[in-house]
Design goal:
7 strands; seven-stranded mixed beta sheet; about 30% helix; alpha+beta
Length: about 190
């Protein structure tokens, strides 16, 4: 059986309410949390349970969150969500987090390719925009390797860790995606 949600290394799937403890685990690393968004005040176990419950529902077709499960370990290694959806312009964005213990294993690139294929081939979007903090060289290199093009920079966009940080704006069009990846059906093994 083929699934658009399964790649070479990961499966994108819904987050189960009982997996709230994994969010606690991921939030323990301040660098991971800052790279994904920003550092938030500590949350209670009840707060994490509420987050998992809210993300366990039926998602919208265009704005949703998914867990990233390692095929080898059959465990959540991160998560991603779409945002900045503009149906009129056919543009969307996403955020992705991979737990510190699972970084540099190919999980992020596999998950991003799966998400792009869904949004371009199934939801008719024509462009994906992402914003990456300039200090996050690993993410910048990953997105460049995937085919994203740097489009600009928002200087001093975010303040944390005692200083201001630039946000690098990158984008990929459906045509750029199709040059390197398949928009068609999921390949069989």
């Amino acid at each position: 059986m083929d699934s658009i949600w399964v790649g070479e290394r990961v499966r994108l799937r819904g987050v189960e309410p009982e997996e709230w403890h994994l969010a606690v685990e991921f939030d323990q690393d301040s660098t991971v949390t800052r790279n994904a968004d920003r550092l938030h005040p500590p949350r209670s176990k009840a707060g994490y349970r509420q987050w998992a419950e809210a993300n366990a529902g039926t998602p919208d077709d265009d704005t949703f969150s998914v867990g990233i499960e390692s095929l080898a370990e059959r465990r959540l290694v991160g998560g991603m969500s779409t945002n900045g959806v503009d149906k009129n312009a056919g543009v969307f964005s996403y955020g992705i987090t991979i737990g510190a213990d699972f970084q540099r294993c190919g999980y992020a690139s596999d998950a991003i390719i799966l998400l792009l294929r869904y949004m371009f081939a199934e939801r008719r979007f024509q462009k994906c925009d992402v914003g990456i903090y300039a200090y996050n060289t690993a993410s910048l290199k990953l997105h460049e390797r995937l085919g994203f093009v740097e489009e600009g920079r928002r200087r001093r966009h975010q303040f944390f860790a005692g200083e201001y940080h630039d946000l690098v704006l990158m984008g990929m069009t459906i045509e750029e995606y199709a040059t390197d990846y398949s928009l068609g059906s999921v390949a069989s093994c």
